[in-house]
Automatic annotation (TrEMBL):
<dbReference type="Pfam" id="PF06417">
    <property type="entry name" value="EMC4"/>
</dbReference>
<dbReference type="GO" id="GO:0005789">
    <property type="term" value="C:endoplasmic reticulum membrane"/>
</dbReference>
<comment type="similarity">
    <text>Belongs to the EMC4 family.</text>
</comment>
<keyword id="KW-0812">Transmembrane</keyword>
<dbReference type="InterPro" id="IPR009445">
    <property type="entry name" value="TMEM85/Emc4"/>
</dbReference>
<protein>
    <recommendedName>
        <fullName>ER membrane protein complex subunit 4</fullName>
    </recommendedName>
</protein>
<keyword id="KW-0472">Membrane</keyword>
<keyword id="KW-0256">Endoplasmic reticulum</keyword>
<feature type="transmembrane region" description="Helical">
    <location>
        <begin position="74"/>
        <end position="96"/>
    </location>
</feature>
<keyword id="KW-1133">Transmembrane helix</keyword>
Amino acid sequence: MAPPRAIPKLDYASIDTSKWKNIPNPPGYVDSASKPSDQSIAKGAFASSQLALKQQRAWDLAMAPGKSLPMNAFMLYMSGGGVQIFSIGILAMLLINPIKAFANINTAFAPLEPTPAEGGGTGTLIPQKAVYVLCNLLTLALGLWKCSTLGLLPTGTADWLAFETRGLVRWHAAARLCVLTFLL
């Protein structure tokens, strides 16, 4: 068996680059990206990019409950129309999760709140929080609709019969008999 050949050492320093200087840069090539930076990024530009990133993450967090609405609707459809342990479990989770989200809204958005150095102040995430609450309200409405279709919400008059009072009886059977005998 022949001994393995030695791998040639590539020496790029000895290559003549003068013949390649006239070749144009490829499309999309940015010359400044290939050169080492001198860390001269302005603090304002960095802060604005951080603020934009936090705003984008806040919008993503706000839209997350809305993105899960189709999946929740499909899960409710697959749980069926009867009152069983599986459908009640799915329904309970669907109703509890928005309530937990309402209770923890400030905790959820706290890491995304811009600092005063980034140009943010109090109330900069109000639109995102409003969308977050709206999406959670839609999830809660979906759960309440399923409760209604299962018959778990007291929406009919028969559900409230225990709280209705009987009116006064104007005519008694004895009084009617007296009137009838008097007329005959």
